[in-house]
Amino acid sequence: MRILFASSEAYPLVKTGGLADVSGSLPRALQHRGHDVRLLLPAYRQVLAKAPTPRPIATLKLGRHEVALLESRLPGSKVKTWLLHCPALYDRPGDPYHDQHHQPWPDNGERFLTLCQAAALLATDEAGLAWRPEILHCNDWQTGLAPAMLAGRQDRPGCLFTIHNLAYQGLFGFEHFLQTGLPPEYWSYEALEFHGWFSYIKGGIVFADLVNTVSPTYAAEIQTPEFGCGLDGLLRHRRQALCGILNGIDDHWNPGTDPHLARRYNSRDLDAKAQNKAALQQELGLAQAPDLPLLGFIGRLAEQKGLDLLLAALPALLTRPLQLVMLGSGEPHYQQALKAIAREHPQHFRFEQGYDEALAHRIEAGADLFLMPSLFEPCGLNQLYSLRYGTLPLVHRVGGLADTVFEEGPEANGFCFTEATPQALLAALDRALGRYRQAGHWRALQLKAMARDSSWRQSAKHYEALYQAILAGCR
Ligand code: ADP
Ligand code: GLC
User: Is residue 260 part of a domain?
Assistant: First the structure.
């Protein structure tokens, strides 16, 4: 199958979160299965710095911009990567969505409108590249308008829209809608209007042939008012076209080959994990205490990740015999609160502010327990990395966390709590600490965790089945 995969970030070219991990690995997995995949991405400054030998293959007229389409490769793979080179929109410091002060770029509407326009144009080969995809696979709001732009065209490919996070919807004003050239009748609650706003994500949800999210539980949750972010009614309406497919994880998250680790290990050589713990304690200036449980957290400092819950639990949590390291960047008020707590507890708490890929690997390998108290979590990748590294996840039972981490029964591989309260989190922690003291039990849980197959193999097959269903005519 010929598949055009459109995304606003892809590892290792540019990453702010799990969307990049998925966009950097699913296309590769699909290519391994014999498909002809092209990845479409804006040529942000950091992308141009890393993309191997980009060469212009077309000029696209998109809105008021002349955009060069560059062909490159996803590093470490043979996936052809098409980059939209438009310095006026993408050559900036900061991340793909924010400036250096974490403020959204004021022209994000136009920046991602251009991405959607390019996807729609390439989907029908209006650029004359002699390559026409059978499937356009769009991801999150930044690509949501492309299916709307293609709606009604006889020559369009099948469209799949993947919701990685419903909380980010791409809402802009009516004036921006007027600039897009979209048909005026799309300004309706049945199309792109959302409580007086212009919604990019609705473009994908309303107009794609099929829609999926990144776990079965999240696919069900978003059809409820609690998790539906105001779109639960629409999602219930489209429930026949909606399903959940768990993300896989890439091979570079493998403790047996991970170049960032002090000592590589696998399930047959699990004692070697202790050396990574010692190295991490040393790196962070924590006491070299092999028997003290070391807890890790890595993530965007955003409400979604359960930071309020964690902050409320921290004073009591830090009275337990343990060490805690948190790595993250994001909302300034969380950064300040964590810095203040770190100053009060220099003995056993470290807060590493920033984005550090290598340290993230070392935390996954060195920690004993991994905290993910997310309020909601469409899939979550860090619990999957943790499982593979034998670092038992302690999670709030929502979304993809509920589908991958189990405390009871033969599948037990971690610790879960259901109520989103500091008390429930602490109770789960105390159960985990109890288990930690029973070395045999702990080891059995670690082996179960490490045995989980989180490779892309299965998930890529599920995506393939969705593509086939679309082509077989459910559009
Ligand atoms: P989300 O996409 O909601 O942020 P995921 O769990 O799906 O959550 O993916 C987050 C990804 O981003 C993981 O690969 C994680 O290791 C990485 N990550 C998040 N914050 C940081 C950070 N501060 N430093 C390094 N990696 C980070
Ligand atoms: C989103 C979600 C996260 C998911 C990732 C990749 O950012 O918050 O749960 O793992 O996308 O699908």
Answer: no
Q: What is the rounded end-to-end Cα distance, in angstroms, of the chain?
A: 17
The beta-strand segments (E) located in 236-390 are: 242-244, 294-301, 323-330, 349-353, 369-372
Q: Please check whether residues 157 and 271 belong to one and the same domain.
A: no
* φ, ψ of residue 226 in degrees (nearest 5): -60, -40
Taking only the tens place, the pLDDT of each residue in 113-164 is: 999 999 999 999 999 999 999 999 999 999 999 999 999 999 999 999 999 9
CA pair distance 40, 4, nearest whole angstrom: 7
Q: Can you give the CATH number for the domain in which 388 is found?
A: 3.40.50.2000
Q: What pLDDT does 412 receive?
A: 98
Tokens of 360: 């993230």
The verdict on residue 391 lying in a domain is: yes
Residues 385, 470 within the same domain: no
Q: 342 and 238, same structural domain?
A: no
Indicate whether 253 belongs to any domain.
no
How far is 319 from 332, CA to CA, in rounded Å? 26
Distance of CA 101 from the midpoint of ligand 1 (Å):
19
How far, in Å, from the CA of 378 to the mean position of ligand 2?
A: 5
If you take atom 7 of ligand 2, which residue's CA is the nearest one?
A: 18
Q: Which helix (H) or strand (E) holds 58?
A: strand 55-62
Distance 461 CA to ligand 2 centre (A): 19
* Structural domain contains residue 315: yes
Ligand 2, atom nearest to 19 Cα = 6
For the chain, residues with pLDDT lower than 70 are 474-475
Distance of alpha carbon 442 from alpha carbon 440, whole angstroms = 5
72 with 218, same domain: the answer is yes
Residues 234 and 92 in one domain: yes
Helix (H, G, I), strand (E, B) or coil at 27: helix
99 Cα distance to chain centroid: 20
Structural domain for 338, as ranges: 267-453
Residue nearest to atom 12 of ligand 1 (CA): 17
Question: Could you give the CA distance from residue 34 to residue 78 in angstroms, rounded to a whole number?
Answer: 12
Return the ligand number nearest the Cα of 167: 2
Percent of the chain with pLDDT over 70: 100
CA-to-CA dists, residue 180 to 61, 161, 186, 190, angstroms: 14, 20, 11, 18
Query: Cα of 330 to ligand 1 centre, how many Å?
Result: 11
Of the candidates 71, 429, 474, 18, which has an alpha carbon nearest to the alpha carbon of residue 246?
18
* Whether the Cβ atoms of residue 242 and residue 216 lie closer than 8 Å to each other: no
Q: How many domains does the chain have?
A: 2
Contact assessment for residue 201 and residue 163, using Cβ atoms and an 8 Å cutoff: yes
